[in-house]
Amino acid sequence: xxxxxxxxxxxxxxxxxxxxxxxxxxxxxxxxxxxxxxxxxxxxxxxxxxxxxxxxxxxxxxxxxxxxxxxxxxxxxxxxxxxxxxxxxxxxxxxxxxxxxxxxxxxxxxxxxxxxxxxxxxxxxxxxxxxxxxxxxxxxxxxxxxxxxxxxxxxxxxxxxxxxxxxxxxxxxxxxxxxxxxxxxxxxxxxxxxxxxxxxxxxxxxxxxxxxxxxxxxxxxxxxxxxxxxxxxxxxxxxxxxxxxxxxxxxxxxxxxxxxxxxxxxxxxxxxxxxxxxxxxxxxxxxxxxxxxxxxxxxxxxxxxxxxxxxxxxxxxxxxxxxxxxxxxxxxxxxxxxxxxxxxxxxxxxxx
Length: 352
Ligand SMILES: [Zn+2]
Fold this sequence. Notes:
The protein is about 20% helix and about 25% strand. It is globular and about 60 Å long. Helix 4 packs across helix 6 (about 305-325). Strand 12 and strand 13 (about 200) form a beta hairpin. It has one domain (about 30-340). It is built from 7 helices and 19 strands. Strands 2, 5, 6, 9, 10, 16, 17, 18 and 19 form a 9-stranded antiparallel beta sheet that branches. The chain has a two-stranded antiparallel sheet with strand order 1-14. It has a two-stranded antiparallel ribbon with strand order 3-4. It is of the alpha+beta class. Zinc ion binds near residues 124, 127, 143, 149 and 152. This is CRISPR-associated protein.
């Protein structure tokens, strides 16, 4: 007998418990902003049936600058050759929302991110959550009484109740085609324990910014038509019957507070570092002359603020938000920690 029998295959090691191993690479690309111990304070909404002279109405002119590639899916996938001559060698491309060859960030996408941020830094109800109803903490159920609305529902609207601000689509300032890459991401896992505390929703989830999105590498994924770095978009946001504190809180959300600089996160690919945009408020148009406002659709040209006067006014509004304690200082600190920009954070490579 010789001793050259093949070595039996080594027994596979038993599977390790999948208990969220804490390694350098498995840090989460998001953080929860905890819900306050205090519950949303609901009150009668001011309404939009007429302009109220003691409240603020007008328009914010905004410029958005893409800092990490941003993709808002249109739901359409085309052959690269159908899109442009530059992409003719790419078999399939997911198409972004656009119009006349220019990319668009739909008003609804902007409203979504701005609303959820406003909710997180005010004492507002949990709207549009995927969590089970039973998991919503006491007092945080979505507003359903039109006579009593939380701070966010007052401004953004509630079921059957129109809000006080409206969003236009943001349109790219130039035609600048850019093809990126979107890996296959995990589906969101709303049942993950980390979202809950004693069986109740613990907070609202926000993704960190990253220096740049993950590269294609070896990952499975699909090419996407994206808004590339430094592409700018312009848009306008109309508001009516807001208090100074409400408009101030909106400006904090838009990153206009010099003590709380942050960028927004828009569109798909948030876990892998996509969708970072900074907002610049270029002009506020106010309609002080309400009589003319009813007679004339256009605001008179001399009724706007820009430059230093605008900066001063922004501070005044933000101060009002703090004075009236509309913005919750703890939640704002959390948001600043997550969304501060610029960042030194790397997108996690093995997230998906
Ligand atoms: Zn509400």
